[in-house]
Amino acid sequence: MSSIPVSAENTSQIVGISNLPNQRYKIVNEHGGHFTMMVCGESGLGKTTFVNTLFQTTLKHCVQRPTSSSNTTSSRKTVEIDVIRAVLEEKNFKLRVNVIDTPGFGDNVNNNKAWQRIIDFLDDQHDSYMRQEQQPYRDIKFDLRVHVVLYFIKPTGHGLKPLDIETMKKIATRANLIPVIAKSDTLTQQELNTFKLRIRQVIEAQDIKIFTPPIDENVMGSSGNPIADANTDENSVAFNNTAAMEHARQLIESMPFAVVGSEHKFTNAQGTEVIARKYPWGLVEVENDAHCDFRKLRSLLLRTNLLDLILSTEDIHYESYRALRLGGSKQEETDNSSVPIPTPARKLLSSNPKYKEEENALKKYFTEQVKAEEQRFRQWEQNIVNERLRLNSDLKDIQDKVKKLEDQVRNLQLKKY
């Protein structure tokens, strides 16, 4: 193939392979992007404060949940799904962000299957997107698939609770999971290192799949910028790959991330205003790597691995769900069959084996309650009948007495005349 000479004055308007990264960058920059993040964990771990600190704005106000009194301890709270939407803009690139909160998780005394509402939400988003892809017109699709789930762990210093282990197992099969130690400033550095080691051991023993940044040179980009990649030489590319791999190793070694959240700024010893939490003994700076891993987690979410989170959701989790759903409805191929295989109907919760035990228990409880109410109604009916007989008897006695008195009055009147 012969090359076509291009003058210097027309280089800004060339169309060819060398200009493909620039064209792709313009297309992506024009359409923008979207990112969905879910925060999950028990109440009181600072999830809302962390979200506001991450985006440096008040996306959601902290709500004080009333403590359950003795009269309401028996009532079972349900896990809610709260979606917060925002638009981030940097250098004319707009990123539509969806933050999903799960208030009410882990607040019950009996947290059996407390994760079910979260798992159902993750599956529903995959199912909704798959159904939109099967429609005749797919120009506009509503996508709320969760790209990453931040699971907040209570800083007990002992290890993961059974609820944490089971919930993380369920979530890891459906979305990118990143464990986070909340309020890490309540632990000393030695306690925090021991706590991290115990969590890593449990995650490995339980075979919980968490998201880890790629460190393979073949799958890592040089700088993340298509325009910069198109104009850099081999030495700079190798340097950028080495730096990116080292950064990825640091992120992996820091997992689970120990974070501290704050919405207030204070002046440190150097006279610089920083975001921190103030204590009588000093400040805990949020963006200081010596105090917590907030900067590393923010870099993973919004700087270096944002595209990895989105692509892994699309290529791994969504495709796995789609294959499982469509694999269960395979039909025998025929020569004249050109209609796409329909998606199986959504199963009701009552037909789910997970709910069979609870369903039978509820049916038994309902039957017993109905029998008890019927017995009480029969007793009330008998009491009413007995009371009516007693009143009729008393009424008859009174009528007899009145009749006797009338006869006496009549006799007295006859004697008088």
From TrEMBL:
Q: Where is the Septin-type G domain?
A: 31-328
Q: Which residues form a coiled coil?
A: 355-415
Q: Which InterPro entries match?
A: G_SEPTIN_dom, P-loop_NTPase, Septin
Tell me the keywords, alphabetical order. Cell cycle, Cell division, Coiled coil, GTP-binding, Nucleotide-binding
Its localization reads:
Bud neck
Record's protein name: Septin-type G domain-containing protein
Q: Which Gene Ontology cellular component terms are annotated?
A: cellular bud scar; Gin4 complex; mating projection; septin complex; septin filament array
The record's listing under PROSITE patterns reads:
G_SEPTIN (PS51719)
- GO terms (BP aspect): maintenance of cell polarity; mitotic actomyosin contractile ring assembly; septin ring assembly
- Family note: Belongs to the TRAFAC class TrmE-Era-EngA-EngB-Septin-like GTPase superfamily. Septin GTPase family.
SUPFAM superfamilies cross-referenced by the UniProt entry:
P-loop containing nucleoside triphosphate hydrolases (SSF52540)
